[in-house]
Amino acid sequence: MPRALITGITGQDGLYLAELLLSKGYEVYGFMRGQNNPKRELVESTVPDVKLLTGDLTDLSSLMRALEASQPDEFYNLGAISFVAYSWENAHVTSEVTGQGVLNALESVRLFAGKDAHTIRFYQASSSEMFGKVQQVPQSEETLLWPRSPYGVAKVFGHYMTINYRESYGMHASSGILFNHESPRRGPEFVTRKISQAVARISLGLQDSITLGNLDARRDWGFAGDYVEAMWLMLQQDEADDYVISTNETHEIREYLDLAFAHVGIEDWEPLVKQDPRFMRPAEVDLLIGDSTKARTTLGWNPKVDFPSLVTMMVDSDLAEQKRLVGLS
Ligand code: NAP
Ligand code: G4F
């Protein structure tokens, strides 16, 4: 039975990846921080077969202990402070967790396994946020990185550390440059979920309007369930490498609003959407659109859920949740 260790188990991708690996017969260990973490219950009820270990990406010895306890064949480093807006106000801790946390994870494998470090296949959750002020359209593995946020800068550090450990120590360390991926498990601070939750509440008469920031930004949005499959495929290759994972389509936030409101029968949504500078960013990433040709040809990966299906999946899930919360179902 192969064994996998996942950091970020309490997050959106951690849960989907754990489900995928359990379905493939893996013994799965989840690394989570904190005494009395409020997300523990969610993990225990969603993926009860995952064995939980506590620690923090900023604490090398806790990663070493997790490796000792899990003896993994595969290590998926998904843990990060992942909310871009938060990273300006908390730049130091973001660089420690999202940046140096990657170095700690890589170093823990190297120290733990020594000359056998290549036998623990390592996945780093890199991000399209690294492309920032994009230097090429669409963005591929060859595109120059130009991060626009402390989060993006920290991800660039982690990305190059992963490549460096591959080149310096022969580690099987791959970096997935994933474009935005969403799901009903997305945190409500991210724009897609913020909208799907508000649309559900507005249609049920529980909320009057939604306040957003920049509606002109464009993102290449996919479904998280499809994207964790790409992570797994990367670690099944003989050689470690870097791959862009994307749908290769881009959409404005306005298009997400169009589809989400239309799904609950509201065509004229403009009066229901307010804008507030509070939600604008000091530097914006205006346009993301990926070119995932390499992943499609080498890994045989293809996204299955398209943009309209993703939007309706999220709105339907929030409608069900809101109805349950107010006792309508
Ligand atoms: P998420 O839902 O925000 O999950 C982040 C996870 O990191 C949570 O489990 C969180 O645990 C954990 N974490 C935070 N600080 C930690 C620390 N100091 N030590 C250990 N764990 C810590 O993010 P996601 O959407 O699943 O994304 C997974 C990874 O992919 C992240 O690295 C993200 O940056 C990257 N990524 C995401 C996307 C996307 O569109 N979703 C795209 C590209 C890359 P708590 O519950 O304790 O906070
Ligand atoms: O949903 P977002 O917060 O995601 P963002 O910044 O693109 O980051 C996500 O994707 C990255 C991959 O490219 C990941 F690495 C990262 O961890 C995270 O998962 O914002 C999307 C866009 C931005 O342009 C933002 O300015 O939506 C715009 N936006 C407009 N109003 C808003 C809002 N974003 C949020 N969160 N809240 C708003 O009210």
Describe it.
It is a single chain. With 329 residues, this protein is an alpha/beta fold. The chain has two domains: 3-181 and 221-245, Rossmann fold (3-Layer(aba) Sandwich); 187-219 and 249-288 and 305-326, UDP-galactose 4-epimerase, domain 1 (Alpha-Beta Complex). It has helices at residues 12-23, 40-46, 60-70, 84-89, 91-113, 150-169, 191-203, 224-235, 253-263, 293-299, 307-325; strands at 3-7, 27-32, 51-54, 74-77, 121-127, 173-178, 181-182, 210-212, 218-219, 222-223, 242-245, 251-252, 273-275. The protein is globular. The site of ligand G4F has 23 residues, from helix 4 and helix 7. Residues 82, 84-85, 127-129, 179-180, 189-191, 194, 212-214, 217, 219, 253, 279, 281, 284-285, 288 line the site of ligand G4F.
Give a quick summary of the entry:
This protein has 329 residues and is α/β, with parallel strands linked by helices. It has helices at 12-23, 40-46, 60-70, 84-89, 91-113, 150-169, 191-203, 224-235, 253-263, 293-299, 307-325, and strands at 3-7, 27-32, 51-54, 74-77, 121-127, 173-178, 181-182, 210-212, 218-219, 222-223, 242-245, 251-252, 273-275. It folds into two domains: 3-181 and 221-245, 3-Layer(aba) Sandwich (Rossmann fold), CATH 3.40.50.720; 187-219 and 249-288 and 305-326, UDP-galactose 4-epimerase, domain 1 (Alpha-Beta Complex).
